[in-house]
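Hi support team,

I'm filing this because I wasn't sure whether my run with hexanoyl-coenzyme A finished correctly. The job status page said complete, but I'd like someone to confirm that the output block is well-formed before I use it downstream. Pasting the exact inputs I used:
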Amino acid sequence: MDFVQFSAQGNVGILTINRPAALNALNDQVIRELDAALDQIDRNVIRCVIVRGAGEKAFVAGADIGQMSTLSKQEGQAFGKLGNDVFRKLETLPIPTIAAVCGFALGGGCELAMSCDIRLASETAVFGQPEVGLGITPGFGGTQRMARLIGPGRAKELLYTARKVKAPEALAIGLVQAVYPVETLMDEAMKMAQRIAGNAPIAVRACKKAVNDGLQVDMDKAVEIEEALFGSCFETKDQRNAMTAFLEKRKADPFVNE
Ligand code: HXC
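And here is everything the job wrote out:
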């Protein structure tokens, strides 16, 4: 792959968008490579994935404006679908994901970060959906995920004005969960990822599915979703091991994902 790299440190995977000459902008090749990289993640080994952009200037500065500039209506819609399908694959990946956002996360970059479960930002991070200034709407799920993450009023204000949001404001409105100096962002993301990876993987994945699926339905159905996922954790080696260890007042054996 030219523009997307995947590496693993123990049980933690790191997905890097690596197209620094264009501030990691997403052309269709980058999006297709991201799709392939997601398919290749070993779900038996990797327990948390960090998504980041190469370099310190940009996480991802958006979809590739050069590539989009001459699209027809039909091609525009198809480009939106290409990104939406891949970002939805990322959002529903059974493994938890953390976006480590250093620098610009604009347009498709902000949408990529919002497709992850958790967002950690550098003090230099800048978020925004500048699309209406380019004569388009967000097209990789930004109108939908931003409204769900920070509420429709705030989302509409940011979408209509195309205003950029710096890290402290992103933290205040809940667009990101924590802000760190550039130098420590990846260490902090790795610490969080390792902590997640140290918990029972079947249970962590069930939490992800319960939150994601439950938010799409009414509360009666949502608690049923939780009940089924809760039930699915029982009889697993990890559940038996952890609860037995508690009762025997000892530390549980490492989780085995079974
Ligand atoms: C293509 C991009 C790009 C992008 C940056 N570059 N963003 N190329 N698409 N989205 C390229 C520049 O053309 C330039 O290439 C190089 O990266 C460095 O960028 P500069 O603009 O020179 O850097 P700087 O002056 O520091 O400004 C940084 C910036 C600015 C503020 C982030 O690049 C910028 O505004 N970029 C566009 C941000 C944006 O509008 N994103 C939303 C796109 S729409 P050269 O070759 O000149 O060095 C979108 C829609 C998603 O994402 C949904 C689609 C369906």
